[in-house]
Amino acid sequence: MTDLEQKELMVQLGRSFYERGYSVGGAGNLSVRLDENRVLVTPTGSSLGRLKVERLSVLDMDGNVLEGDKPSKESVFHLEMYRKNPKCNAIVHLHCTYLTALSCLQGLDPTNAMKAFTPYYVMRVGKMQVIPYYRPGSPEIARELSERALSGKAFLLANHGVVVTGADLLDASDNTEELEETAKLFFTLQGQKIRYLTDDEVKDLENRGK
Ligand SMILES: O=C(CO)COP(=O)(O)O
Ligand SMILES: [Zn+2]
């Protein structure tokens, strides 16, 4: 894809997230790897519903701004994950309602915030590690995500939101939607006896991919 096509796709996905209530106000940020030296990121403070192609930020791998507006304050963690994991080509960070609600619960398993009860959760992300709470934009988030960048695709930021990676922007977006839907089901099922997938069922799905 050309730079322009990536920028247009980012604007389109941002608007789609916004229109469906996945993002509100200026929360959340998106990024995609343009090539081995450059990353496209949403500008800081921007509503995902009103992104403009010409204002999107292009950064080099050291965080220098090559084009566009001042980048997201979370671009430090986005760059860190791209540096660490060559298979990570796009990142979605949202404060979507159900995943953020989950991130506020006490006693989450730090190795996996949601035990699998549907196959697509396993096929798309597998598990969701929990990063302890830090102030948004703080370097500790980047350090914690860097340490885990090779061991998962989705991460819950405690009391904050979610970080989801993918092979490209569409893949990262689809992973995020699947995850938010799973969290919605998790809360819908509160008070009911859930039949979780068995270890064998999970293994069978992991071996098949999506
Ligand atoms: O979600 C956010 C911080 O965690 C939004 O920050 P930015 O507007 O700087 O991208
Ligand atoms: Zn955030």
Automatic annotation (TrEMBL):
<protein>
    <recommendedName>
        <fullName>3-oxo-tetronate 4-phosphate decarboxylase</fullName>
        <ecNumber>4.1.1.104</ecNumber>
    </recommendedName>
</protein>
<keyword id="KW-0479">Metal-binding</keyword>
<keyword id="KW-0119">Carbohydrate metabolism</keyword>
<dbReference type="InterPro" id="IPR050197">
    <property type="entry name" value="Aldolase_class_II_sugar_metab"/>
</dbReference>
<comment type="function">
    <text>Catalyzes the decarboxylation of 3-oxo-tetronate 4-phosphate to dihydroxyacetone phosphate (DHAP) and CO(2).</text>
</comment>
<dbReference type="InterPro" id="IPR036409">
    <property type="entry name" value="Aldolase_II/adducin_N_sf"/>
</dbReference>
<feature type="domain" description="Class II aldolase/adducin N-terminal">
    <location>
        <begin position="8"/>
        <end position="187"/>
    </location>
</feature>
<dbReference type="Pfam" id="PF00596">
    <property type="entry name" value="Aldolase_II"/>
</dbReference>
<dbReference type="InterPro" id="IPR050013">
    <property type="entry name" value="OtnC"/>
</dbReference>
<dbReference type="GO" id="GO:0005829">
    <property type="term" value="C:cytosol"/>
</dbReference>
<dbReference type="GO" id="GO:0016832">
    <property type="term" value="F:aldehyde-lyase activity"/>
</dbReference>
<keyword id="KW-0862">Zinc</keyword>
<keyword id="KW-0456">Lyase</keyword>
<dbReference type="GO" id="GO:0046872">
    <property type="term" value="F:metal ion binding"/>
</dbReference>
<comment type="similarity">
    <text>Belongs to the aldolase class II family. AraD/FucA subfamily.</text>
</comment>
<dbReference type="InterPro" id="IPR001303">
    <property type="entry name" value="Aldolase_II/adducin_N"/>
</dbReference>
<dbReference type="GO" id="GO:0019323">
    <property type="term" value="P:pentose catabolic process"/>
</dbReference>
